[in-house]
Design a protein that fits this description.
54% helix, four-stranded mixed beta sheet, elongated, alpha+beta, five-stranded mixed beta sheet, 9 helices, 360 residues, 11 strands
Amino acid sequence: MQILTPRVYWAQRHGEIYLRVELSDAKNLDISLQENNILQFRAQGHGAKGDNDYEFSLAFLEPVRPEIDHKSTQRQVDIKIKKQEERWWDRLTLQEKKPLFLGPDFDRWLDESDAEMELQTKEEMINKISVESRIRKDPYVGLKRGYLFVYNLVQFLGFSWIFVNMTVRLFILGQDSFYDTFHTMADMMYFCQMMAVFEVINPLLGLVKTGFVPAMIQVSGRNVILFVIFGILEEMQNKPVVFFVFYLWSTIEIFRYPFYMLACIGTDWELLTWLRYSLWIPLYPLGVIAEAVALVQSLPIFDETRLFSLPLPAVLGHSLSFSYILQLYLVIMFLGLFFNFRHLSKQRRRRYRSRKRKIH
């Protein structure tokens, strides 16, 4: 057998040198560091010119450590050598002219600025792991996740039942389904909205990272519409606006709750994530508009029945109609829409920035 020189590719980091020798099924490997900082390589294997003995030597630009890590595979021999001093080299070899058998390993190649960024990222990860290791782990984390998973599952099933039933009734009955929505769907909606009170409690207990105020605005606003406007006023229960309020609520929630449910088990479904952070952009304002229509339609009823009117001193009049309070609430509701919209927009931007970092 004649002795040939294999093709060698190289790349570097601040602390290491990587060599990739194109020699498959290498045998009798002999890799050593000689005097004057010279790497000596000898092996038998299949290279560019078939089965032969192959060898090469490289005189490094600067001192390296004597320990050499290498791994032989069916396709190549990978070699990693640590630099004596962590710094960037202008070239690999002591001689200025590059050997003909040596080329850059573009699979590993980084310039100095990219390598510094990679090093900084590794340091940040090490620091993060170090900090997390010092933080005492919550012994109840599994129980908390289980509770949140079950809660979101129950809410998903409840709102899915409402959405599917309303959709089926709409196809079968058409517009006639508008007028008995409350009587057919109210019990399940009552259940779901009473369960939603936990969304206000969960942030206070530290079970979720969402803010208390946005959750309070949404849950209290819906409950005013459901329990006060629809639940107490029988005149409102047969109006078509009930259909649109219930349908918009359930459409939003059948994507929101499964998103949070999967997050409890560390699962991220890209389509569901997009739906959760995109559909609310048109649906949430439409839901608030439907709620506002319900409020406006209820004002004459409260004026006529004097229900929940506040007694006043004789000098000021007999009573203050509850409709005035609802008109004030109507203004507050649209302010809440503005603040909640800003909060959800920030969540959406934060989520997609996080996804981009994971991709890159």
